[in-house]
Amino acid sequence: MRNKFSIGQLSKLHNIPVKTLRYYDEIDLFKPIYINEETGYRYYSSEQFKQLDIIHYLKTLGVPLKEIKQQLQSRNIIELQESLKKHHETVETKINELTRIKKRLEGRIKEIDASLKVTNIGAPTVLKISERTVVQLQEKIGSIHELELALRKLKNEFGVLSPIFLGKVGFTRTISQVKHYDFKEYNSIFLLLEDVEEQDLLQKMSNVFPEGHYVSIFYRGVRSEASSYYKVLLNFIKENNYEIKGEFIERAIVDQFLSNDEEAFLTEIQVQVSLGE
């Protein structure tokens, strides 16, 4: 049959599944030029190849089939231009979101890699740390149940945030709690904001951990073992005549949700101090 191609032939020529071509026919987007009444076989003409190329091109740009169909029917260049502009904006939004996700993944990979290389376990050190932006929820947390509720509340209260990334959630304890060895509960829960746009969006709702010197200690093990390391920090601060300037910050970098090996767990405890003269 001259200049006529079966649906199977067209599928192979254009690398489009037969199922897709049948669907295009069903929705009146791309119909065969001839259907054999006896066999029901569909046949297409080479003159339709350009139309199929246009459909494929617009589809790869993200244009919905409904709009492609409308464009093929109207062939209005202004409508096509507006449709492409709209989908260009959609693509830009997706690219920006993927770029943010990529940065977070890179940061998390870097942090996990660093956690595997930590050797100064249980030894306090003094670090100069830049200002960090957080959203913080003042909430007493004394159990896993209360912890999970606080996490959901934090996420819901600051709904513009992207999904919470493991490892960026932390807790605080007051100076009084630590000095009185009261480790039954945390004073607040916080989420570190890594994304500059999120920091801008939440500027009025966010808090900061100020730039300064922090005494830090890492330990491997479960959360219930933290109290002994707080005591080590307190002794270190007292021996060096440092002055505590803020709440104690505790963050599990690797925990049971990331590893089933307790020896790989890693938690950091920090507190800002004044080094004095």
From TrEMBL:
Transmembrane segments: none annotated. Gene3D superfamilies: 1.10.1660.10, Regulatory factor, effector binding domain (3.20.80.10). It holds the Pfam family MerR_1. One of its GO terms (molecular function) is DNA binding. The lineage of its organism: Bacteria, Bacillati, Bacillota, Bacilli, Bacillales. It comes from the Bacteria. The keyword Cell wall biogenesis/degradation does not apply. The keyword Translocase does not apply. PROSITE patterns: HTH_MERR_2 (PS50937). Residues 88-157 form a coiled coil. Keywords: Coiled coil, DNA-binding, Repressor, Transcription, Transcription regulation. InterPro entries: DNA-bd_dom_put_sf, MerR-type_HTH_dom, MerR_fam, Reg_factor_effector_dom_sf. Residues 4-74 form the HTH merR-type domain. This is Putative transcriptional regulator.
